[in-house]
Design brief:
Distance between the termini of chain A: 35 Å
Number of domains of chain A: 2
Number of strands of chain A: 13
Helix content of chain A: 25-40%
Strand order of the largest sheet of chain A: 2-8-7-6-5
Largest sheet of chain A: 5 strands, mixed
Structural class of chain A: alpha/beta
Oligomer: homodimer
CATH superfamily of the largest domain in chain A: Type I PLP-dependent aspartate aminotransferase-like (Major domain)
CATH class of the largest domain in chain A: Alpha Beta
Chain lengths: 386, 386
């Protein structure tokens, strides 16, 4: 059951459909095979990312981007002189960036790996650690890319159901496995797990790699980086796309024991040694170094999330406890699908998953206070028109 | 026999070694295994890219970078507003960039694939087309990454020897195969093949994919893009790193039949849907659209190459006929290794391969006229001190 492939952008009325999708560039799903394709390609089920329409005036709350621009220091770092030097290759080891990350997290530089977005880091990690005889374990409701990587690298997996309250039951993961991966907080539920539970799992799973995917960690939960020194099989993956407002430059990183990092380096250097470009490295360095700006953006998003939750609860929504920059919200007056469509008509884009158990929820990215106010007012208007 | 792994940065005297390598960040080769690694990782032999030392005052002629900065339109394209919008994901289909490439080469947009450098494009192509029962074919002296990709994806290969004059004998490739790949012009020889020979091969190889890797095509040879429409199994790969002075942003592309491109898209969307960042896409668009600047840079490099060849020939060098932005030059007074070391002492970096047949040559990137003059003068001085 692949979350990504069952995600649905609901068919709109012909009028609203053309007005919304006209200028977007959808990824075409070409089903036809070709005799030139390897067997692998024929069997792949690629990931389908959230829609990226290019429409003015859209309130875009569907892909968990940060509503605030990157640190002013990022702007300052990308000078004309930097652009003039783009004729030169980047440092293939991204040494300066690794150094800044190592300092920020108080780990050694050989405990840090960087990649072209955390998707690339995760892909390398699946190839480096999860190609084992036993199946890997991850939640049934989680980041839709995990089953796609399994398809890409021929990895068997077991999807373990979330509990009734949508939490990850880590005790279920105490079974024979080829590796374990889960996001913390989980996506798209937004629900976080405490460090004690993760450490308990690590104490029982010492022979296979455990990956904690912390894409949303900075919006209110505790990072497992603190455990890396004690558990050589723990890999923590983070991204600059969310909390550091750099989705547009593609930088992700992993922190783990030097033996895990060395494996990722071996894959990277057999694939694309210069995977981080010169500008991405500088932007990432500036964003990580500007701790005050980073913390202030995270605090603003958290405050907006809490006030949005209150307002939507007052409108009858049931909302899962979120530690992320998005919420999973279940409307009471309409079905999630109906409300998704009505919001889209009103030029507000959120995300709907036509998947059992979560099909009654909408995943709503936390925008600015102004954007969330637009959302709340539009929902009020829709509900008052019943 | 892996070219990359047999490349040698010769051990220097301790004095010159420390003065040169101090501030560089070499990729450490960690030989130790780990019980957490997949079998694949344990057996990988990663690529070793050319040295990227960070030393002031070095004449850097070792990694085939363009001596001229990118088009002024690239600088103009990367505005503060662009950087402010880095909080948003890039267009995962890179639609605008594909469109500009399609227009430039007069092909349809579904004949174009773009990736994070041509290394990523090549990696995807190996996975998409070359995982076949028969071995793939490539030259024994060629781009060192081909055997690395074979290791990464478990692909069998046969390395066919170059002719005595270092040309690729395409008639050797008319045998059963799982695919064919060669650079045109070849690296590190710089020698080009004409389109007629490539078309003759394509007429005899219709069942497997033929990849022409045109990283250096713009410095004086003819692109096989002209053949793409007639041969659905032909994939042409190019990069913006050399002729468009954008090694620092990592953009490569492939042109081929829509059925080949669809396979690459399937791999990409199972690996990293947002592989091209927002700035890289804009820089690439500006660089491709500025045809005048591009042509003028290529012409300057070609003119400098021809005058350098003449001057080195006058100093007794034997030089392979180059259609690239580098030359393979065989010194007469010293061995290639001795001259490599002497140039390095004089802060001029070229590339030396300790590999049979080419170990008597140095690969020298074409820099500015001024840089090549420094090279020629230093060689004169070294030779006059014999």
């Amino acid at each position: 059951m692949v979350l990504s492939n069952s995600e649905t952008i609901v068919i709109m009325s012909s009028e609203s459909k053309s007005s919304i999708s006209e200028s977007s560039t959808p990824i075409s799903a070409k089903p036809n095979n070709s005799r030139f394709w390897s067997e692998l390609v024929q069997e792949l089920e690629p990931y389908v990312p959230g829609e990226q329409p290019k429409i003015q005036g859209l309130t875009k709350l569907n892909t968990n981007e940060n509503p605030y621009p990157p640190s002013p220091k990022v702007v300052a770092a990308i000078t004309e002189d930097v652009i003039d030097h783009l004729r030169l290759y980047p440092d293939p080891s991204s040494g300066r960036l690794k150094n800044v990350i190592a300092n920020h997290f108080s780990v050694s530089q050989d405990s840090v790996f960087v990649g072209n977005g955390s998707d690339e880091v995760l892909a390398f990690a699946f190839q480096a650690f999860f190609q084992q005889s036993a199946a890997i374990l991850f939640p049934d409701i989680t980041y839709g890319f995990y089953p796609v990587y399994c398809g890409l690298y021929g990895i068997d997996s077991i999807e373990l159901p979330l509990a009734d309250d949508f939490t990850i039951k880590l005790s279920d993961y105490e079974q024979d496995n080829g590796g374990i991966i889960f996001p913390n907080p989980n996506a798209p539920t937004g629900i976080a797990i405490g460090l004690a539970a993760i450490e308990a799992l690590l104490q029982k799973n010492t022979d296979r790699v455990v990956i904690v995917d912390e894409a949303y960690i900075d919006f209110g939960s505790e990072s497992a980086v603190a455990l890396v020194e004690r558990y050589p099989n723990l890999l923590v993956v983070q991204t600059l796309s969310k909390s550091r407002s750099l989705a547009g430059v593609r930088v992700g990183f992993a922190i783990g024991s030097p033996e895990l990092i060395a494996a990722l380096e071996r894959i990277k250097n057999s694939f694309n040694p210069y995977s981080i470009d010169r500008i991405a490295e500088l932007a990432a360095i500036a964003a990580i170094e500007d701790v005050d700006y980073f913390e202030s953006c995270c605090q603003k998003v958290i405050a907006t999330r809490e006030s949005t939750v209150e307002q939507l609860q007052a409108l009858g929504f049931d909302i899962l406890p979120s530690a992320a920059n998005f919420i999973m919200a279940k409307p009471s007056v309409f079905s999630a699908k109906e409300l998704f469509e009505a919001l889209r008509e009103a030029k507000i884009l959120v995300r709907y998953f036509s998947k059992p158990r979560i099909e009654q929820y909408l995943r709503i990215t936390i925008g600015t206070d102004e954007e969330m106010q637009i959302l709340v007012e539009v929902i009020k208007a829709i509900q008052s028109n019943v």
